[in-house]
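Troubleshooting: if your tokenizer reports a length mismatch, compare your output against this known-good record of 331 residues.
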Amino acid sequence: NVAGIDTGINLTSSGSMQIAAGVLKMRSRGTSDGTTSISGGATLEVAANNFDFLAGAIISGGGRFNVGDLGPTPGVYTVADCIGLSGPVTIRNATLNIGCGSTQTFQDLRIEHNLAVLSGSANMAVAANMQWQNGTILGSGAPTATFTLNGGANAIWPNSGTVGPRILESRDFLNMGSILINANNNATGLKNNSRLVNMVGANLTLDIGSGIATLFTSGVGTPELLNQGNLTVQTGGTWAITSRFTNSGSVNLTGPIQLYLQGAGTDIGSYSVDTTSQLYIDSPAGIRTIAGSGSISGNGALLLGNGGQLTVTAPTYTIRNTIIGAAANTQ
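Known-good structure output:
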């Protein structure tokens, strides 16, 4: 069953609203400081307008909360306190602002549209599952503002039916769980000093099978990808990391695969390049150092070109093939 409140209606709610079954589609503007309960199997969908869940408003239950739809009109929705749902929260063509004073923890978060924006002053976390097709995760300033994928949680960043990048802006993304990126048509942009940190013990896997994927692109400030855990590039295709990249964990290339590092960085972690894989340092901005306990090894190939530079002061450099191109400043 589907019921709805249309766009021409202004809704003010200070009482209790319960969605026990079916779908309630709210296109109305207005405010609520009451209780909204969404039972398991039921859905509340808000879209195409502006609506504020004020301080004291409670959103709870085991059902679904859809913010935005696939229509032409984006909405803006503000939640002053934390969302207390155990069911999925899905953001499409809408902005969801969350301002609670504690960490907003989602059990299941899905960001599924080019116009989707998740923002607010709250730090945020995912406890179980996440899908991020495209859209923006926006903070109030990195590194203070954080988004954490908790230990044991799983995230997939897949290809999407709508073309557009994932944008992490003014917020650090701390991965303590496992992320699989298998999208080759939607790059992930890091903006305004945001960082993706693959924490110690966490897993970040790049796997597109074939094709070319630009993974992390730089925006304003000094955004960065930091690998402190396990970064695996596998199966096939070509990946390019154009942002600053620092590796203090392990990077494993299991091919046939090509990985281009086109930003600067100092590494004290390890690189392992198998027989069918190539690691490229291939950009004038690609000025890299492997130092301390860092290492590079394997039966694959390291290729320097297009002005890329590599300085090795680490004791272990046992990769089988090193190829240095003829472009100016390549060394």
